[in-house]
What does this fold into?
Amino acid sequence: MADPIWTVAPDNSGSATLRAYEYQVHVAAHAILEMLADEPVHVICEHVADIIVVRRNEGQVDGRPFWDFQQIRTRAATTPWALTDVLAR
It folds into this structure.
């Protein structure tokens, strides 16, 4: 058998997948920092949606929590998203 260290990988899909998950971590980190600062926030990852942020604010009229279901997407372009791009889709 050939040494796996010297075997050329058939593609680079693993690196692209890792970058997509790293982006999800960056998006979730903001809410996780709020939670660690004792804010009324809960963060659920990879269950029903990529990220669910549950906020329970005292100022809410009905007292029920706000559930923010987030599907995180990445793209190959290196320029920031533009509103015209989002509206075009």
